Model the fold of this input.
Amino acid sequence: MVKKKIYSFSELSSPSGEVGRGVGIRSDFPILGRKIYDKYPLVYLDNAATTQKPRCVVEAMTDEYYNVNANVHRGVHFLSQQATDLHEQARETVRRFLNARSTNEIIFTRGTTESINLVASCFGQAFMKEGDEVLITEMEHHANIVSWQLVQARQGIKIRVIPISDEGELILDGIDDFFNEKTRIVSLTHVSNVLGTINPIKDIIRIAHAHGVPVLIDGAQSTPHFRVDVQDLDCDFFAFSGHKIYGPTGIGVLYGKEEWLEKLPPYMGGGEMIKTVTFEHTTFNDLPYKFEAGTPDYVASTGLAKALDYVSSIGLDVIESHEKDLTAYAMKRMMEIPGMKIFGPKDINQHDAVISFLVSLPSTGGAGKGAFIHHLDMGTLLDRLGIAIRTGHHCAEPLMHRLGIEGTCRASFALYNTREEVDALVSAILRIQQMF
Ligand code: PMP
Done:
């Protein structure tokens, strides 16, 4: 039975030394107070799929709809100008968050998937021809595989895959051999949404640049957990989603170095991406608007900016240290469960706030020795005990093939999770294991 706990939230208060901070943080998220079935409070450990939203994000968006709403950029009237100001201020907030040089480098998209598709499509069109190569890795999300397969189908490019070790880390010995005169771009994830592996992208970017090749980083799973500085990384493109960092759904960001974005053709046509149009010819708008066709989600951009301000006000260093502590604690506690198999790096410095696991049936004598409890059964039973995790292939089917499994259970943490919730997860897994 999952015990009802009095939540102390002491973990989050300790890194910053600000007593009581955690209490405020947890109460910023009304949904965490929900009762699911007869279980209270909800233990939400599905943050890699999407995070919950603090009150300030929802309120900023509601306020904009109630008091400001008007289409941006094209209006001379007061509301339109105010909405435009908010939208452009949001772009500046994103620029500051990523430490980009200019707001010209910040493109609003619908999310990581659209950002990656934009780069694959436009970069492919401008810089790749039949036989040219893109380098990805074995741990990519489908968004960073299928986008390139679309280019492959259209243009006959080749997708090459950097392998991973059994530990779930990239095998970088001999990485230079992957580069040749046909390599056009490297596209890889910063953090694996399955294994939690934090890839050494700064080194990879340096190596790629030494070969004259640009790099796109999928930052969906890194931006919520630790500080990202695109100038320091020197990446050429960087993608992330608002909804995974406490912001609204339906908005994300593509960062691109200005010199690259200038060279790419537009992605979609219409709306703000034009300068002049005749039936014969169109001239395109300047950056960043060249890539923003149609009415942007200007209310979501306000929500995203609020979310980024929210995490910045807590401090990404504080969040990182809290989540590292929680992940280390969870790995330690979970390994106490007989038959537990945790995927991904054992070293907590290489492992982000995502834990993929499978548990053997008690009778089979240990992890990997016999049948695992099916991830779907585990997820469903945990749900009945008031604990939300994710199960399945996590949009990384090729990685599942590499690991020789169909799917995993995945617990993933956010700034509002606590050690008490980890304890609840561990007791619930033990209870389920006994049921089998
Ligand atoms: N890449 C990674 C590593 C992800 O975890 C996800 C979301 N699961 C995506 C890309 C796609 O993000 P979105 O659905 O927000 O576009």
In short: The chain has a mean pLDDT of 93.
